[in-house]
UniProtKB/TrEMBL annotation:
Tree of life domain: Bacteria
Residues of the Glycosyl hydrolase family 13 catalytic domain: 18-396
Coiled-coil regions listed in the entry: none
Protein name: Alpha-amylase
GO BP term, example: carbohydrate metabolic process
Family annotation (InterPro entries): GH, GH13_cat_dom, O16G_dom_2
UniProt lineage: Bacteria, Bacillati, Actinomycetota, Actinomycetes, Kitasatosporales
Pfam families: Alpha-amylase
């Protein structure tokens, strides 16, 4: 096993918050969120209790894929402001004990990047993967004077950076080894990019499509070596920085050098079953290749926490002792919000009771703390539509701050907003929920504070599953009993604690050796110790 410097101590207790910057807060009235808007709302994040924010890509881009098509890694996109605006955000966040992470698109650039413009006209340039002639399946014909075609990494406008192939084939001369000149230049470029932003006070990166670097790479062994090399450099050059991966397979990514990996709606041998078995109710973002399933957090009560628990157990056992962590998001910019389709606001407290007490690093997607809704039927925006049932725009609508025009997101005319607001008249807002102690927002704040003040409920505390069904019952750190019943009907199971104190509960009774939870009930109880 490769030995890395231990993760920064702050990571073990981190509560992540993801901001889609163009939809969070618009300070200058152009209809698009920006750095200054985020800075103006840092007090909300501080009050909520989150301490680590990651921003979706904010580099210069033509925005064919919402910024995941980078045209310049060392320059911020003007829509978000200036380098000074980003520096102000980082400084103001630091004063509140909040770290800022950027999103690093490591596997590809935009076709507008100068690297690609040079490569498309120079047959001797190998920063990208080019065929010498023709256009094999999966490649895109050259747009420049160079003959042949290039390999995209996602959309056609996102050419794959060349990190080499794990397996060469004489019939495919574009399969360069991982130590060829082009792949070596790209590995060096990643260090240069990281060094630039970390030197300006950023705390680390969430790495987009982290498993996509080396091609035809069985088991991702060569891709893992790329990240291992970068982690050793990071441990020396920036020992307090962290790398989070969009990989979805902690058993592979954490040994490779990532400090944490997210359970995602894809990744690993089960193609993201762990996350989808919790939240995916068949509405919102649905990939046509996914097998139909009944998720656990559904009113019907047909799901089970077993797929998630089994996946978490396998992953946590595999990475035990490596100093890495597994993160569980409520949602993200590519996946449906919790409040989606038939799932209603009354079902969300139980979801957060689980999310903030399970031994993963919790990641809250902006707006989920107030129960913002996935908005269906929106037009394609910057590459949001990936399939007939997969429109990411519904998870990217403007943050709902208050009841002023545009929900306080922007002073621009409504038709100039980055995306339309949720049109429902009872849409939740931060202001209304701040004024209501019984709101979801206040519950999330209390649960966040409880987690951060209670080591047994953190990512390192033990967990013992008492009942793997409805209700889902587990004990953290040998002391805290958690009960979650996400179905609409009452559910019960046998359990007889000798004593208990209610910490946070709604609709759960412990009586006579039986736990009874009404529909959508939840509870956290201190058993003493």
């Amino acid at each position: 096993m490769t030995s890395f410097r231990p993760a920064p101590t702050w990571l073990a207790d981190a509560v992540f918050y993801q901001i889609y910057p163009q939809s969070f807060a618009d300070s200058d009235g152009d209809g698009i969120g920006d750095f200054a808007g985020i800075t103006e709302h840092l007090d909300h994040l501080s009050w909520l209790g989150v301490d680590t924010v990651w921003l979706n890509p904010c580099f210069a881009s033509p925005f064919r894929d919402a910024g995941y098509d980078v045209a310049d890694y060392l320059r911020v996109a003007p829509r978000y402001g200036t380098d000074d605006d980003l520096a102000d955000l980082v400084d103001e966040a630091r004063r509140r004990g909040i770290r800022i992470l950027l999103d690093l698109v490591a596997g590809h650039t935009s076709i507008d990047h100068p690297w690609f413009q040079i490569s498309a006209n120079d047959p001797d340039d190998h920063r990208y993967i080019w065929t010498p002639e023709g256009c094999p399946e999966g490649f895109v014909a050259s747009p420049g004077s160079r003959p042949g075609a290039y390999l995209p990494n996602f959309f056609d406008s996102q050419p794959a950076l060349n990190f080499g192939y794990a397996r060469e084939n004489p019939a495919e001369p574009w399969r360069l080894p991982v130590d060829a000149e082009g792949p070596r230049a790209n590995r060096h470029a990643l260090r240069t990019i990281m060094d630039h932003w970390l030197g300006l006070g950023l705390a680390g990166f969430r790495v987009d499509m982290a498993a996509s670097l080396v091609k035809d790479d069985p088991g991702k062994a060569e891709t893992a070596l790329v990240w291992t090399e970068l982690r050793h450099w990071l441990d020396t050059a920036h020992p307090d920085a962290v790398l989070l991966s969009e990989w979805g397979e902690p058993e592979v990514s954490i040994p490779a050098g990532f400090h944490a990996d997210f359970f995602l709606h894809f990744g690993g041998p089960t193609n993201g079953l762990a996350l989808r078995s919790l939240w995916s109710n068949g509405e919102g973002t649905v990939h046509e290749d996914w097998d139909p399933l009944d998720c656990f957090f559904d009113a019907s009560g047909k799901g089970s926490p077993r797929p998630f628990v089994e996946a978490w157990t396998r992953a946590s056992t595999a990475v035990d002792g490596m100093g890495g962590a597994i993160s569980l998001p409520t949602a993200n910019h590519d996946f449906s919000r919790l409040n989606c389709g038939p799932r209603t606001a009354e079902q969300l407290p139980a979801a957060f009771a689980f999310h903030l007490t399970w031994p993963t690093l919790p990641a809250i997607y902006y707006g989920d703390e107030i129960g913002m809704r996935y908005v269906p039927g929106l037009p394609d925006k910057e590459g949001s539509v990936l399939g007939p049932r997969y429109n990411r725009a519904g998870s990217r609508t403007p943050m709902q701050w208050d009841d002023t025009p545009n929900a306080g997101f922007s002073s621009a005319p409504a038709d100039r907003l980055y995306l339309p607001l949720d049109p429902t008249p009872d849409r939740p807002t931060v202001a209304a929920q701040r004024a209501d102690d019984t709101s979801l927002l206040h519950l999330v704040r209390r649960l966040t504070a409880l987690r951060r003040s209670t080591p047994e409920l953190g990512s390192a505390g033990s967990v013992e599953v008492v009942h793997l069904g409805y209700p889902f019952v587990y004990v953290r750190g040998g002391r805290y009993l958690v009960v979650v019943n996400p179905q609409q009907g009452e559910a019960s199971c046998s359990y007889a604690p000798t004593a208990h104190r209610t910490v946070e509960a709604q609709g759960v009774r412990l009586d006579g050796g039986t736990i009874t939870a009404r529909g959508f009930g939840y509870g956290i109880f201190d058993l003493g110790g």
